[in-house]
Amino acid sequence: MGRSLKKGPYVDERLFRRVEKLRQTGRREALKTWSRDCTIVPEFVGYTFKVHNGKVFNDVFVTEDMVGHKLGEFSFTRIFRGHTNKKEGIKGGEKTETPAAG
What we know:
Blueprint: H1 13-25, E1 31-33, E2 48-52, E3 57-61, H2 86-89
Parallel strand pairs: 1-2
Antiparallel strand pairs: 2-3
């Protein structure tokens, strides 16, 4: 269930103030944050955030397509290594060909 429209999007007030301060100075440095639940607003476009994933900070460069999403959606917390091949999962491994007697 999403957030009520009456309440509006959740934007971390401290992070928003830091972006506004960077905008006034004209600098483009990365902002380190643990606020994965912060909604991306149009004011964040063009800035880089270092979003914590529980272990390290991942760089997230905000584009226009990301507006309305959460910062945490772009900093993955789990590593997907792919599904195992069914043939490799069976004991004994792959079959080896025996030379034909001849």
